[in-house]
Structure formats: structure tokens, C-alpha cells
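Researcher: I'd like a structural prediction for the single chain below. Treat it as a standalone chain; there are no partners to consider.
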Amino acid sequence: MQKMIANLSKKGNLRTGGGLSPSSVNAIVTVAQSALKAACRRGYIPSYTADRVRRPKTAEKEIGCFTPEEQKKIEHAAFSDRRPKMFGIVLALYTGLRIGELLALEWEDIDFEKAELSVNKSCHDAEKNGEFCRVTDTPKTPTSRRIVPIPRQILPLLREQKKKSRTPWVIGGEKKNAAESPLSVRSYQYSFSLLLKRLGIPHRGFHALRHTFATRALECGMDVKTLAEILGHKNPTVTLNRYVHSLLPHKHEMMNKLGKLL
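Model: Treating it as a single chain, here is the predicted structure.
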């Protein structure tokens, strides 16, 4: 097992011949360990020792998010664009949905009376018979299945989108056969990339919208537990570790309040 980890880290990437990232190696190790645990429970092997291996360390990725000024530019451009799909960018900024969750969202998942949306599925691109197609599946993790409150300022915009929509999806295409051909994740990412280029904003992936939502939420004073539930994180510790930098201004404010006692 330890040899396998070393080999994957050095030359595990079948496309490039180089090494896999620590997170990819750890994912493979987790699957192998689960298989060996099951084998031990069923008596195929005498004991389970795979937990003694040393896993590669993973560093927390630097969170890339948009500044308030960049966010306003993006919002203005999305509203100015007549294509319905561009509204998804605004929706992502104010709900924190992942791109797969956003594109899989259907009108039946939105409760306008309660001002809530239900995240119960996600989608991704896959290759089938030499062609790329969109596959809808269950959410990323059990905690990803969640109810997200919709800001009341977004509701009228959603109602307007629904009136114009010709698809069962909230973020659909503009083609005549849009109902039969939903947007692919790859094409939507490309549209977002082109928008940033047109606005002169440094490139960041679509996931940066989710990070931006989380950062703005903390800046507005949202508590970490509430934010974790909205984002679909397993526990608040994940959220806290990931967005601790966003809490620094709030920490300064609290420390200055404490200093007033001097």
C-alpha cells in the first residue's frame, strides 16, 4: 500500500505521466482501505493493517473570491445580458450553489411562497459513445442535500425568469430545443470565463462565485454554523478552516470593541 502511494505520487497520472495530486492519491487510498476493511470483516484476509500507511499531506487551497467591486461588475453585466442563462451567475452569488447543483435546479425545486430552494440533485459532464453529455445524479454528499433560503430581493427576479423560461430547468438554454438539450457544465464554465475576460477581471473558476458568497455572508455577520448548513458542508469546522481569512475584519472589529474597555 505504501509503495502504491509512492508510485501514484510520482507517476500516477495516466495522461501526463507525472504524479497525482495529494487529494487524488488520498481518494484512491480511501477506496482501497474500504475494500480491505470489507475483506477483513468477511474473513477473506486475517487482519486489517492498511491504516498504518502514511498518507500524503494535502494543503488547503487558497480561496479565490471576487472583490465587492468585481462582484458589482459581474452582476451588472449578467443583468445587462439578455440571455436567461446569465441570471444563474447572480443566483450563484446569492445562494452559494455549486455549478452542478445550479444547472440541475428545476422550477419544481423552488418554493416561491416559502422563499426556499431545494438542492436534491447535481449534474456533471460525462463521455458517452465518444460524445460529451450531461448526467444528473444525487448531490455530492448527504449534507449537500439541503434547503437554501432565497433572499427576498432575488425572488421577483426568479419569478421574471420563470415567465420567460421554456425549460424545466431554472438555468436553461436559449435554443429552440432547449427543453431537450440542457446546458452542459463545460459550456457554462466557458460562458463565465468569456464574461470575465470581457470585463477585464482576472480569471477565476465558476466555483469562485461560491467562495464569494461565503465571504460576503461572513462579512455581513452570518454565523459559521448557518453558513455551513447553507453551503452543505459536513460540519462548521470545514467552513471555519476554509474561510478563516474572511473573518479577520470581523476579528479586528471585535478586538477594537474590547479595547474600548481600556
